[in-house]
Amino acid sequence: MAKAYDHLFKLLLIGDSGVGKTCLVIRFAEDNFSSTYISTIGIDFKIRTVDIDGKKIKLQVWDTAGQERFKTITTAYYRGAVGIVLVYDITDEKSFENIQNWMKSIKENASAGVERLLLGNKCDMEGRRKVQRDTAEKLAKEHGIRFFETSAKSSENVEEAFRTLARDILHKSFRKAPPGSSSRALLEPGPPRKTGGRCSLG
Ligand SMILES: Nc1nc2c(ncn2[C@@H]2O[C@H](COP(=O)(O)OP(=O)(O)OP(=O)(O)O)[C@@H](O)[C@H]2O)c(=O)[nH]1
Fold first, then answer.
1. Is residue 198 part of a domain?
2. pLDDT, position 1
């Protein structure tokens, strides 16, 4: 029987409560959107398999709760992720300022070399924009990561963002593969950064 997928990537979405993490996951995995806001309790995930450069990549997308009270539960999931999506809301300045704190949280809890991506969500609400695109682009550049403005509502850039992240992880894992080793092994997460990692990503 043909293998259902070539690689499994665990991705994680983080960011303040209400920025649209759940909606982005639902848009990407089910191509759906709801304007009803039900705050995530703890953590949940959805799966979608995509074809990237001829490889079948199974994406397990973990959606975390943005509320502070769930922080202990959600940070426990950072380590298993090979990609982390940082989300803010372009109509909410505070959610953008907090990206610095979410970056810090990645540094403290994620595997070394985890691929990061910055998303400014709700770009369909141009009239209520508080965070300028240039400002976010600058921040992304400082951290050496990619940046997209997305809308889970209109679906703008959602597909592109997840595909770009998956492609970057795929390319990174192959580039680092020593001769004769399996690329799958390189996608296994190492220990958190602070304990000194053996993960080959990065
Ligand atoms: N206009 C617009 N509204 C959005 C968009 N994405 C999400 N929303 C709305 O924003 C609200 C919060 O969305 P969620 O996806 O539940 O936010 P979250 O980041 O998962 O929140 P927590 O689970 O509390 O961390 C909901 O009312 C959504 O309908 C978007 O791209 N455009």
1. no
2. 61
Q: Is the CB of 164 under 6 A from ligand 1?
A: no
CATH number at residue 62: 3.40.50.300
Q: Could you read off the pLDDT of 147-198 as tens digits, one per residue? A: 999 999 999 999 999 999 999 999 998 775 555 554 443 454 444 443 333 3
Instruction: Record the pTM.
Output: 0.89
User: 196 in a domain, yes or no?
Assistant: no
Question: 114 alpha carbon to ligand 1 midpoint, in Å?
Answer: 25
Residue nearest to atom 21 of ligand 1 (CA): 18
Q: How remote is the CA of residue 36 from the centroid of ligand 1, in Å? A: 8
Take residue 199 and report the two structure tokens written for it.
């993960």
- What is the number of structural domains in the chain? 1
Ligand 1 pocket: which of 13, 16, 22, 102 to mutate (most atoms <8 Å of CB)?
A: 22
Could you tell me if residue 195 is inside a domain? no
C-alpha R_g of the chain: 16
Single-letter amino acid code for the residue at 184: R
Q: How far is the CA of 48 from the centre of ligand 1 (A)?
A: 20
> What's the domain range around 93?
7-181
What ipTM is given for this predicted complex? 0.99
Q: Spell out the residues 6+ positions from residue 121 whose beta carbon is closer than 8 angstroms to its own.
A: 19, 20, 23, 24, 87, 88, 89, 90, 149, 150, 151, 152
